[in-house]
Amino acid sequence: MSRCAAEAPLFKEAEAANLDRASQFALAAAAQAISSSALKLDGGADRIGVYWGTGLGGAHTLESAYKQVYGAGEWRVRPLTVVMAMNNAAGSNVAVRHGLRGPFANFATACSSSAMALGEAMRTIQSGRADAMIAGGSEALLTPATLLAWQALRTLAPADAGDAAASCKPFDKRRGGLVLGEGAAAFVLEEESRATARGAPILALLSGYGNSCDAAHMSRPDRDGQIRAMREALAESRLGPEAIGYINAHGTATAVGDVVEAEAINAVFGDAAARVPVSSTKSMHGHLLGGAGALEFAATLMPLMRGWLPPTAFLEQPDPACRLRHVPLRAERVAPPRAVMSNSFAFGGSNVVLIAEHA
After folding, report:
1. Per residue in 3-58, pLDDT tens?
2. Measured between alpha carbons, how far is 132 from 334 in angstroms, rounded to an integer?
3. In sequence order, what DSSP letters do the residues of 297-344 get, joined into one string?
4. Disulfide engineering: 300 pairs with which of 139, 248, 324, 328, CB 3.0-4.6 Å?
5. Which residues are catalytically annotated?
6. What does the DSSP assignment read for 166-192?
């Protein structure tokens, strides 16, 4: 049986067999978000929707089908291969499970997918099209073919000789690339007045959303595109750079990417860049691609909720080319800041920046 934390089983083994791993992650994360928000969904809802993000969709299902056909020579695959592998399967399963008949969309903008799902969910609520939205993302990509494809791009980190867990070293002089990860994160978004009226536990106020395209290169990050996204998020939140008390960087630990992001942060924050703490939690959970934005937004809320700055693990030798106020090695205790920022910058030049404040 598959379980959501210590709660009742989410689905039986027979049902799990017809759900790709990415959909299983999505169902678990959405169930946790709905439960912790005390959102009542008895009988479903016409004005509650789902916006979900993923990069590769049902990668495990597709790889299994290819192995069956090209490896085992079996020219038949399971009947539900298409609906298990399709890119919108994870979000659709969340909607079906909870009877959510409001707005629905699946975002597949590589590494910014689930951050975009959150930003667009905010816009949907602001426009009056929905009372609440379940928004987030999931990714399940640890298959041999996927790993080989990323290895061919020469972006994966070599294994650390002393400790394989220390292979991802964002902003460190010794960094050699990213480490892939799997998982999911989900949020319930709604108007503050509605949440307050029903006595919901409110984690934070999502107040800024920046979305830009580099329109420059399919894989090389662009400083100006990142700057535009950060400035758009600040403008929407009506905050100046000095109000931001923590930045969760995209920080993939690639040679070029970390430098470009550091330059963009310095350009946007100016003198404030010397004091605003910056870290990359990818050093601990890996890169979830389409699910990264939502998971990292959850980490970004930790200073607001708990007064802890998440660290960049294994950052022992900061690269002078990545001139930032780092949070190296260990979490730091701080007074909760007014606002925090989360960066998600993707292949294809898709940039998304989210800003959250105390509710």
Report:
1. 444 456 788 888 889 999 999 999 999 999 999 999 999 777 999 999 999 999 99
2. 32
3. HHHHTHHHHHSEEPPBTT--SB-TTS-SEE-BSS-EE-PPPSEEEEEE
4. 248
5. 111, 250, 287
6. G---TTBTT---B-B--EEEEEEEE-H
